[in-house]
Amino acid sequence: MAWFKRELKGIITTTEEKKEAPDGIWNKCPNCKKPLHYSEQVENQYVCHYCGFHIRIGSKEYFSILFDDNQFTELFGGLTSGDPLHFTDTKKYTDRLVETKKKTGLQDAIRAGVGKMNGQNVVIACMDFNFIGGSMGSVVGEKIARSIDYSIANKIPFLMISKSGGARMMEAAFSLMQMAKTSAKLALLSQAKVPYISLLTDPTTGGVTASYAMLGDINIAEPGSLIGFAGPRVIKETIKKDLPKGFQTAEFVQEHGFLDFIVDRREMKEKLASFLKMLAPVAPAP
Ligand SMILES: [Zn+2]
């Protein structure tokens, strides 16, 4: 019966011989801490199947979820930030941009694309939080403005997916100008009677909330997202009052009339496609 007897004492596998599971195959749900397998996550559209927590994802993932067969044409991919203020904080802004581009493989905190969603044309602009906190600088504003122009010229509905810490400090006033620019462009989109759906994801704050994110014909959010303008500490110190429970969650914001719907990411494509169908212009009678 030697087969169940440990014949050698001690652990004999050397560190070099140990087989490690490749990195990134398993992740922990940030909310319930249960292990999630990467392929399951993709299948479940990056929602924890234990607790329903919506894991933060970027434009690559949103595009793969929303565009039919992940087929789309990227728009205005070549736009990159300048450094008009020669800004330096802990490091030079130009160096920070080079590093962040290398680390994320992105050109800025937004990507735009045109493709089909359940067979209907749609332009999607989606922010990336990995790129300097999804901050809104001149490139973010310009890509949104040009995407809207594209939507108007081609009569294709526009979907904006926001995920942002607010305006980009390193571009100061140039960042703030994007609020007015994008809002004005959205007014033109509305005049052209082209639908605009805004999807707010975790987190949507600052100047983004105060401009294009809240201007949709329909404003939708993912469950549990942080949505607000200033952070809770700043507000508390300003109004000298305790804030209510659940303050600045999507659910709270919806209850107070700022959102139309909260939609689970697993049903997002179906819901968005049905809204597009409802908003589509009726073809004139032959
Ligand atoms: Zn979970």
Descriptive notes:
The protein is an alpha/beta fold and 286 residues long. The protein folds into two domains: 33 residues, no CATH class; 223 residues, 2-enoyl-CoA Hydratase, Chain A, domain 1. It has nine helices and nine strands. The strands form two sheets. Strands 3-4-5-6-7-8-9 form a seven-stranded mixed beta sheet, sandwiched between helices. A two-stranded antiparallel ribbon has the order 1-2. Helix 6 links the parallel strand 7 and strand 8. It is globular. The N and C termini lie far apart (87 Å). Zinc ion binds next to loops. It is found in: Cytoplasm. Component of the acetyl coenzyme A carboxylase (ACC) complex. Biotin carboxylase (BC) catalyzes the carboxylation of biotin on its carrier protein (BCCP) and then the CO(2) group is transferred by the transcarboxylase to acetyl-CoA to form malonyl-CoA. Keywords: ATP-binding, Cytoplasm, Fatty acid biosynthesis, Fatty acid metabolism, Ligase, Lipid biosynthesis, Lipid metabolism, Metal-binding, Nucleotide-binding, Transferase, Zinc, Zinc-finger. It is an enzyme of class 2 (transferase). Belongs to the AccD/PCCB family.
